[in-house]
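Section 5.1 Outputs to date
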Amino acid sequence: MRSLPGPPVRQDEPASGLGPTRSPVHASSGTRLGTARPRQEGPTDLRLVPPALAAWATAALVLDAHPAWAFGLVTGCLVIGCLVAVGLPPSARRTRRARVASWPRASAAALLLCVAAAAASAGLHGADLRRGPVPGLAREYATVTAEVELSSDPRLTRPKVRGDHVAPTAVLIDADVLRVQEAGGTAVTTRAPVLVIVDVDAAPPGRVTDGRGRSPWLGLLPSTRLRVSARLAPAMTSGDRVAAVLRVRDQGEPEVVGEPSGPQRLAGRLRSGLREATDGLPADPRALLPGLVVGDTSRITPELEEAFKETDLTHTLAVSGANFTILLALLLGPPGLAQHVERRGLAPRLGISLRGTAVLGGVLSFGFVIVCRPDPSVVRAAACGAVALLALATGRRRSMIPALATAVLLLVLYDPWLARSYGFLLSVVATGALLTLAPRWSAGLRRRGVPPRLAEALGAAAAAQALCAPIVAVLSARVSLVAVPCNLLAEFAIAPATVLGFAALATAPVAMPVAEALAWCAHWPAGWIARIARAGAALPGGGVDWPGSWAGAALLLAATLVVVLVGRRLLGHPWWCAACGLLLALAVVQPPPLTRAVTGWPPPGWRLVMCDVGQGDAMVLAAGEGTGVVVDAGPDPQLVDRCLRSLGISRIQLVVLTHFHADHVAGLPGVLRGRAVGAIETTGFEEPADQAAFVRRLAAARRIPVTRAAAGEQRRTGELSWEVVWPPPSPPPDSPSWTPPGTPPGVFPVRPPAPEGPNDASVAMLVRTAGLRLLLLGDLEPPAQRALARSPAAEALEGVDVLKVAHHGSAYQDPGLIRRAAPRLALISCGEDNSYGHPAPGTVAALRAGGAAVLRTDRDGALAVAGGGGELRVARD
């Protein structure tokens, strides 16, 4: 809508002969809302910044302080602050010059009073963790019956590999203990924050579920009251905001003694309605959309979460100020027009005045906090989002620095634990970057001919990344080189996905078909965001390792400053800019020929690569240009994926999983990531059962056939061929006198013994490639190694070129098999400073005594075997 003709109405003159005009802020949404031009900017007011920062630092320090120290700090600051304030001359309130002269004293008084308030608030919050009987019972690891009130949504822990197994899945819930009773004691009323851990994997096989196979604990809502029997334990780390850990065994339905509040029940229905509306979507949008809208990340897979971390898009998986900003922008219209004649958005179209719009925005804010849960992170998001939107809507970005400082001060006083929150730090730093650096960088880009919309988006993304990257580096010890382009490409999809997602959330309880249609529309932008994250994470040079410390953060900040200073000069030289952009693109894409020429990795003619995946196994056999056979996947998808990318492997003919221990199969998602896989071959001994089921689920999702390996199987592809030499074929259950085909008399017993565990059922292979013979033993233990030395394949095992030492070089080896193999080169895959003592010194000594050169990934990194025709070369990455 264009401006109406005629001069703008002045605020100091009547709009007609009926009286003075109203301020544009309070004008109705009729024909005249105010001036068509934004107001002039004044100088930036920084007076509130020092008090906010001082309160922030005080809260972070006082939370763990002794109460006497906190009381002394509060008293001292109050006394000194009052003395400074009382000492202000009375004339400071009369003339402007006197007020300006008194500003330093007034600022000092305000700073001291804010420090006193922050110290008092932090001291009281810290005392909450030490008050009552819960901390003492936790130190005694007492078993108690407690009544707790939940303060957060239940969440599942991510699977973590610990040695050869995956840590049990647990449900984590933040709660407050209201009553606690030790066995044989009396119940005591208290209030102490705790972390409830429910070990769902330790529950009986017939436990009750919610109908979807999940534990009913996952369906609980905040404000629900439960009675639990559990064991108390001290907080996991010092500085936690919980007084103790309450560990519960999932024995079935939780005992509910108090229903959740009405607002939480409504929020629960809305959230579950959104999940139901997204049930029919493809996997990535189905997981991402609830997280993007209300912060529900329960469906986010570890693989997708890792992709978002690699591209610094993690903020889209949690409720952030951007969500709130988008919703209010839909209400108010484009930035900068909230008080102008051209005001747009839903509010003026519905005839709502500015005052009514403000009230409606407040209601929307309240609903946003309730639906997304009123925990500190959501409150922080609402506050920071409101500040950022207010800065954009009024067109007065520099005057919004005091508003941001006020928001920081109030939030830290309300919840001092935010002072130690990295999420809070990132939110404040990002908002500050948008208010200070982004406008200047955008203006500079526009002066150099960049289109205005692109300049604003690029300036905002670059400014936020420049200031947030050092903090992210402390958390992840990695710097993303693709964060800015990925955030730029994703930015265009975040707004439509959020708006459509909230529309589906609101309509799901009353009209599920409409909600499903809206969710279907939202899945396109949500899927685009997921594809951007996966594509950015798949780039070989998408990130670089960086020191994960505050010294590393300072170094990165200095490097960023140098890049900015050099970049300003380069912007005036298009050819230099193009050359730098090309070099950056080559560093990120890393074409294999260029990488090999620069780094020498992988060496030409490589035949086998033992990847450095920590305490686990992962090997790659060359089967042609860009093609390989993978033997085991290691414990970490990210590490094995990085290894395969460095080798340029895009097609995998076969994945051999020697056995189902987690340090050999947990990295399988990284092997499958973005690669064509022909088949997966495993051992027939499917233990541990949970890891075997994990492999089968992944294979079924990708429609990859799964077969079982058995001794005697032979395969060939080009120059690469291999024979499975262990385990022997399983005998039919109804044939007690069965002997494996082709077995000489007396070699095997009448019935081969069942393996004692997954290690003895490992798939062992004899590989032939380019005239080299390689023996891969998996994790075979001495009993299986001795049986292998007496098997029909024993003669073929003599005098191999390369031996992959069994079980990470543990002390449990059969000397007879080592003497028979007599390798020229022995490779050991193990993690640096692992707790198992792998490899054992005795095993290394025995291999060297037999004439083998011994190399190990914990000291030598990834190892590549090359050569042919008897020649053997080894390269280290």
